[in-house]
Write a structure and sequence with these properties.
Elements lengths: L2 H19 L6 H14 L5 E6 L6 E5 L2 E5 L6 E3 L3 E2 L4 E2 H13 L9 E5 L4 E7 L4 H10 L5 E7 L9 H9 L4 H11 L12 H11 L6 E4 L4 E3 L4 H10 L8 H7 L9
Parallel strand pairs: 8-9
Antiparallel strand pairs: 1-2, 2-3, 3-4, 5-6, 7-9, 8-10, 10-11
Length: 265
């Protein structure tokens, strides 16, 4: 028996045990009291949303960008994806996507540098630092991806890249921010510093709300997040995955795919 099979069986056993222990039906009326109970148990954890899960006795809990499942006691938490096998739907991913749309109002797209490749049918947002080496790597890969609209949010991590904020402002305030961004990332050419009403501080607030913890971080139109640099082939597959309904079998294929190169934090 392989280690992978053992791990899957162990996870399944734990899952069954947790679900069996939750014998009381979770209702919407109980959600408020459960939320208050969780807040008292874990005062340093920001519980943003608590609601009944599709599984009897469990609640779906949103904490930042993380989603977990717990019972009314709050002693045990199950992290992972909950699938509706009959309809082949990833319910956890649906919640994540809805949360993304709720926290990412369309008007914030005006803060981004917009680039359109081909017909621009697919849409992706990327939080990027001008001094992040992984951001440079993924920019090269993005140039190879066609038929996509890219919204680049300048997200300088000043604590690890001193001077990145100044560069971001110079790029954002340029006459043509898209060209300025491309010139910097490909040729290290910066435009002169000019005064303008820039959205850099707003970008930092937005990224924090969305759960961005490093650069680069990509967010698909359906809410999926991808931290780190990946190849253009992986980007194509990731973007196209949002065009179909995910199935439970996708977890194995995702595990088999090559990981991202890295993320600056």
């Amino acid at each position: 028996m392989t280690n992978r099979i053992r791990l899957k069986r162990a996870i399944a056993a734990v899952t069954v045990g947790v679900l069996a222990a939750s014998t009381l039906a979770a209702t919407a009326d109980d959600s408020q009291s459960v939320a208050a109970h969780l807040a008292s148990l874990y005062p340093n954890t920001p519980f943003r949303d608590v609601k009944p899960a599709p599984v009897t006795g469990l609640y779906e809990v949103t904490m930042g960008q993380n989603i977990a499942y717990t019972d009314a006691s709050g002693q045990y938490f199950l992290f992972g994806h909950l699938f509706d096998m009959q309809n082949q739907v990833d319910l956890t991913e649906q919640t994540q996507a809805q949360g993304y749309k709720t926290r990412f109002p369309e008007q914030f797209l005006d803060h981004a540098i917009k680039t359109v490749h081909g017909n621009g049918k697919r849409v992706v947002a990327i939080f990027s630092d001008p001094d992040c080496p992984y951001c440079r790597a993924i920019e090269k890969e993005l140039q190879r991806v066609d038929n996509v609209t890219i919204y680049t949010f300048l997200y300088p991590l000043e604590s690890i890249h001193p001077g990145a904020t100044n560069k971001s402002i110079r790029i954002q305030c340029a006459t043509d921010p898209a060209k300025a961004w491309r010139d910097w990332m490909t040729s290290n050419r910066l435009p002169p510093l000019v005064a303008c009403h820039h959205p850099i501080n707003d970008n930092l607030v937005l990224g924090s709300r969305l759960g961005v913890t490093g650069t680069p971080t990509l967010i698909a139109e359906d809410g999926r997040m991808l931290p780190g640099a990946v190849s253009s082939t992986q980007l194509e597959a990731w973007l196209n995955a949002g065009q179909r309904v995910p199935s439970a079998g996708d977890q194995d294929s995702a595990a088999a795919s090559a990981p991202a190169q890295g993320v600056a934090q």
